[in-house]
Amino acid sequence: MSEGDGAAAAPLMGIAEFEPFVDGLDHPECVACGPNGEIYAGGEAGQIYRVSLTGEVAQIGTTGGFVLGVCLDGDRNVYACDSAHHAVMRVAPDGSASTYSAGAPQRPMVTPNYLVFDAAGNLYVSESGSWQGNDGCVFRVRPGGATEVLSERLSAFPNGMALDAADRYLYVVLSNLPGVARIDLAAGAEPEPQEVVRLERTVPDGLAFDAAGNLYIACYTPDIIYRLAPDGTLATLVDDWTGTILATPTNVAFCGPELRTLVVASLSRWHLTRTRMAIPGQLLRFPRLGAAANEEASAR
Which residues contact 154 (CB under 8 A, 6 or more apart)? Predict the structure, then answer.
């Protein structure tokens, strides 16, 4: 476990290496990569945006609520955590929206915040609960929408998540820890969380792995992105003390055809920011859930 020693050293990258490349979005909380490296983001009125690396924007649909985290399957359906609907909504390529999951039978969703697919089509969803309420959890949604509580031990406002390259460990931001923990998905029922890093006096928010196993941690505050190496060494990737380029950098995603473009969402502004990375992003999972699973979800 690291304690934040790297935060005092000089950042690995300067803020001048990051540039806003699209503007006019409605305070994007999340940014996500699609199956071909394309960029998706959400807005505060439920907007689902598709964005090119050259800055063209198309609103492809809406949930009609308030979008937090988003991810995609192999058929380019967008799965969006919607805090107004208290559900994971699915927006099809034609723009139609349906409820994919509203929680487990014994525990409905209240503040679904972020979500990530594994290779088998299981969707992991962080349920943040209430701020400082220590009442969050992590759901697992099986293909088609059947939902169970995976862990109630990750309760300190679970937020952004990422799976390791083997789908073995689920890494979860705990914004009220503050820091990052992980659970072993092969450990059976109610796995014991392991603290990975603690980031005092921050509010961590988003996660992404690169292909070398470095974990990038974006913070709601201060305007910093950290890099945690596989050996536990913590460094500051970039620090925007002015809060203008990386203004509340809630989420990050590796995008583009080679996954070498790191895209940052700025919740406090209207833009996305990008930079070129030496190491590409880790390959994500884009399962094809099939017509039967899609029909089951649409009926919910």
Answer: 126, 136, 137, 138, 172, 174, 181, 183, 193
**Cβ(171)–Cβ(159) below 8 Å:** no
pLDDT of residue 189: 79
Indicate left, alpha or beta for 55 from its phi (over 0: left) and psi (-120 to 50: alpha).
left
Confirm if 262 and 280 have CB atoms less than 8 A apart. Answer: no
Record: fold of 5-298 = Neuraminidase (2.120.10)
Reported as a single tens digit per residue, the pLDDT across 277-290 is 999 999 999 999 97
Dist. CA 137–CA 53, nearest whole Å: 34
Q: Give φ, ψ of 231 to 5 degrees.
A: -85, 5
CA 172 to chain centre: 10
Cis? peptide before 178, omega within 30° of 0: yes
In the block, tokens 């609907």 appear at 85
Q: Are 206 and 220 in contact (CB under 8 A)?
A: no
Q: Domain limits of the chain?
A: 5-298
